[in-house]
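Case study 2.
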Amino acid sequence: EGGHQFSGLPQLLSARDFQDAYVYNGDFSWDNQQGFFSNQGMTHFVGRNEYVNPVVSDPTWGVSDQDMFDRSILELNALKDDLPFYALLQTLSNHTPYALPDVLPVEPVSGHGSLDLHLTAMRYSDWALGEFFKQAKQQPWYNDTLFVVLGDHGFGTPEQMTEMDLYRFHVPMLLLAPGIQQQLGSENSTVASQVDMVPTIMGRLGGDVQHQCWGRDLLTLPAADQGFAIIKPSGSDQTVALIKGDRVLIKPKDVDARVWTYQLGANPKSAPAAAHSDDAQWLQQLNAYIQSATSSLLDNTAGVQDSPGQ
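Prediction:
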């Protein structure tokens, strides 16, 4: 709800005098986005009604990704150059119903039947992101900026490997900045979820930080820690799951939990896992996490709390 507090990036970074900008293809009234983010500390919003002569103006989604990214460059260049900034650039072209330009700057995908439009939208969104980075690299703030690229969800598949559509939750998080690969490596296969994003970003900025994001800094975990993620489908489906490494414990409502081994990527596969001594502990961890998070939301205690004496 819009009135609830969260210790997210707008709140944490505004306390460090970061400027902010939220640039979006669509309408901020959807899902009360502007109300929610305003309550968390975001102050500058650019939505579908602020674009002039966009390449696409769709009645459902708004403007195209290239419109959004082009406007983002203008907005970021208009910020004060003596203060840091936090910007949220939200794309929509790669989301059904696909609102693409009539004249595409990329070759449409063909030969995949009903997936053609979906794959074309992915190709177009990828092109628009690439064009943004071409422009960003020419800006004075580029070498001082950490870019984080993350999707809110993946795409489901007709063939289900488990009771949970794992591909629906399978997205990468890209951290892009000058020298970051040399310092941290080019790839990290730690299992994680969106709650780990804020601690990971704040860890790169350094300094003391207090948050209640329920996540961890993925780049400071012990070497043997494979990470974990708690996932649940959107809507009324009450199935929940705990993922660690190549195993996933899935607990549908009113049904016993089951553990699977899985592999995603080019050669996906899954199989019921053999019973393991950790299974009961995993289920306990899943239940405890959900209960703690739910209580925090219901009691509105997910914001930053002052320590005693402060």
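The radius of gyration is 21 Å.
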